[in-house]
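User: Reviewer 2 asked us to show a designed sequence for the structure in our supplementary figure. I'm pasting the structure tokens here. Could you produce the per-position amino acids so we can include them in the response letter?
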């Protein structure tokens, strides 16, 4: 009987081993990435490998073999020869023991109840019996790659042992040896003192029995460092990359925004963003190996073929998510299937890899003077260059979405360019999207809301410079929305332009009576709307906190703000407000000259404000610091501050 691809998850839910929420998360992951539902259950954290295999062993009435045992097992060449690599890959099975006397072969399989599979193996190998144990699909695939194909790094992406690569990075930093060469040496050498342990056939059987009897496993815990700390570490590593200084952090910021816009889960977004931070680790000079460069020049392609797995090898003992390793490994695949290493095409390529290929290329074209064009391109020029290569190289749908992100649909652009923010409110998804893109092309940062309630919440949470709204909204119309905004001190002065299909004279009068700045009927030309917006923005100052740019700390953390302003070499006063507390950080050409928080000054004030999670920020670019009390670089300050926060949370 053919089993459903999600039967394992269905049974775990029915048995009460996973919750409805965990089930939904695993199913969404499975829908996005395919493969085996078992991997989705593990990677989303619904179950651990041990819990999953124990449940499956009970269900299949067999034993199970954990990843670590497959990794270190000593498999005899004669045992491997019983099953061809083609047959092993076809059924996702791997041979582990052979009883020559009884002609019985023990294997690990994804589905030990697959009788057709066992019979095919018996016929091919001329065996009497096949005895199937259950194991994790990724572990079986890794075993095939390691023992049949000689790939010593095959278990990299699922190895949960733990020598902590990022702790090695921290150790190097504390010894003041934090340069790329030293870091690579530290990470590459970690763990080399341990020899791979060999398990005998008897030991495999005995350990299987102990695990089945006790249900207990040896688990090595690995501490996950925050993305903020990884950002700082990578920023320090890249400080000597000249034109590529800050490249990986910038790529990660774009990547994170893309993940948010697509709507992937928070943990997936973190894993893919981590890949963006680590994708250049150890690749070195002279070429910058973006997907665009590799597709255009043979020299780049040849170098990339040699180095594309270097980041994974450096971190092979680190506890990084599968989505992270997949994104890095497959970032040079092409949509037309002519990329490497596996010739994947279209949506066979992991989502993280498709995003990373775009964001890495865009960051290179817009910030690296040594890019193929030998000049820094504007965002629109970079997008145009990417679009020209989209059909064979990039995912066209993701390129279109990224065009919106790159054009300034976030506060990062406001910090660097001072672009004004517009909130578009329209219940019609298509019209809302079209208007959004049209306004973006005219240089605005655009937020959208599909309901009146969502618009009010957005206005209360984040400063908006002007609203453009339809009248026909749900659950109440645009007139009622404006009435409620007028009742709030912080939103009543923000200008609103109605852009609507409602043309009755009574509607027009009511709109103006409520204080609307203008009432435009669809389909007015976008140039007319843009002119109206620019006119009112020139007359009205709307930020709730004085400053050139303002926003929410929920949307952008203090470490992100500091790095963006530092890399952008900005001058000004960053004012921070969190509840009843407030403080300031003073920048001069990207360096931090001073910090003020209550009765503290200098570094201690800076470290105290890093605790702010909720609140508001504003940047006043007209402010110039008159006092310099801080000499360290922004990266060094962040690293020390985040270290203190980490110690305080233990």
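Assistant: Here is a per-position design you can include in the supplement:
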């Amino acid at each position: 009987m053919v089993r459903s691809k999600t039967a394992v998850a269905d049974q775990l839910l029915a048995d009460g081993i996973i919750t409805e929420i965990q089930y939904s998360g695993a199913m969404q992951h499975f829908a996005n990435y395919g493969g085996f539902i078992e991997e989705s259950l593990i990677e989303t954290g619904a179950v651990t490998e041990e819990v999953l295999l124990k449940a499956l062993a009970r269900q299949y009435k067999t034993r199970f073999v954990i990843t670590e045992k497959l990794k270190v097992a000593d498999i005899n060449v004669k045992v491997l020869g019983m099953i061809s690599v083609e047959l092993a890959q076809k059924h996702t099975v791997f041979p582990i023991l052979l009883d020559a006397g009884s002609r019985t072969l023990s294997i690990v399989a994804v589905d030990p109840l697959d009788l057709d599979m066992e019979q095919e193996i018996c016929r091919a190998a001329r065996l009497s019996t096949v005895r199937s144990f259950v194991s994790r699909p990724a572990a079986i695939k890794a075993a095939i790659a390691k023992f049949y194909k000689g790939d010593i790094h095959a278990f990299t992406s699922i190895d949960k042992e733990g020598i902590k690569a990022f702790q090695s990075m921290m150790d190097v930093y504390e010894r003041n040896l934090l340069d790329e060469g030293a870091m690579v040496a530290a990470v590459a050498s970690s763990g080399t003192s341990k020899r791979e342990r060999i398990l005998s056939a008897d030991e495999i059987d005995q350990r299987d029995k102990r695990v089945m009897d006790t249900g207990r496993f040896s688990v090595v815990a690995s501490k996950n460092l925050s993305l903020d700390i990884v950002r700082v570490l990578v920023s320090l590593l890249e400080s000597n990359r000249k034109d590529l200084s800050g490249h990986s952090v910038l790529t990660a910021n774009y990547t994170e925004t893309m993940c948010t816009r697509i709507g992937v889960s928070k943990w997936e977004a973190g894993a893919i963003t981590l890949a963006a931070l680590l994708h250049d680790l150890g690749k070195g000079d002279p070429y910058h190996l973006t997907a665009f460069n590799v597709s255009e020049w043979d020299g780049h392609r040849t170098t990339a073929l040699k180095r594309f797995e270097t980041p994974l090898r450096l971190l092979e003992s680190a506890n990084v998510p599968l989505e992270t390793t997949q994104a890095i490994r497959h970032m040079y695949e092409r949509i037309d299937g002519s990329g490497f290493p596996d010739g994947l095409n279209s949506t066979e390529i992991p989502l993280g890899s498709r995003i990373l290929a775009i964001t890495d290329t865009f960051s290179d074209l817009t910030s690296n003077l040594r890019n193929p064009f030998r000049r820094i391109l504007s965002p629109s020029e970079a997008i145009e260059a990417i679009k020209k290569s989209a059909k064979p190289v990039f995912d066209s749908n993701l390129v279109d979405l990224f065009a919106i992100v790159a054009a300034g649909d976030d506060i990062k652009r406001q910090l660097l360019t001072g672009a004004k923010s517009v909130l578009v409110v329209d219940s019609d998804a298509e019209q809302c999207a079209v208007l959004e893109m049209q306004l973006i092309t005219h240089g605005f940062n655009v937020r959208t809301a599909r309901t009146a309630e969502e618009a009010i919440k957005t206005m209360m949470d984040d400063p908006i410079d002007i609203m453009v709204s339809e009248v026909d909204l749900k659950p109440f119309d645009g007139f009622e929305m404006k009435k409620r905004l007028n009742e709030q001190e912080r939103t009543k002065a923000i200008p609103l332009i109605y852009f609507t299909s409602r043309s009755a004279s009574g509607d027009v009068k009511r709109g103006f009576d409520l204080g609307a700045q203008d009432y435009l009927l669809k389909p007015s030309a976008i140039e007319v709307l843009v002119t109206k917006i620019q006119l009112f923005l020139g007359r009205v100052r709307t930020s709730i906190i004085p400053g050139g740019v303002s926003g929410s700390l929920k949307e952008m953390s203090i470490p992100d703000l500091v790095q963006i302003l530092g890399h952008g070499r900005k001058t000004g006063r960053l004012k921070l407000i969190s509840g009843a507390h407030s403080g300031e950080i003073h920048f001069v050409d990207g360096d931090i000259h001073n910090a003020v928080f209550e009765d503290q000054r200098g570094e201690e004030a800076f470290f105290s404000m890093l605790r702010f999670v909720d609140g508001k920020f504003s940047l006043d670019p007209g402010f110039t610091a008159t006092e310099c009390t801080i000499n360290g670089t922004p990266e060094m300050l962040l690293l020390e501050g985040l270290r203190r926060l980490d110690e305080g949370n233990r």
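For the response letter, you might also mention the following. The domain at 419-539 is CATH 3.40.50.2300 (Rossmann fold). The chain has four domains: 48-158, 227-408, 419-539, 549-648.
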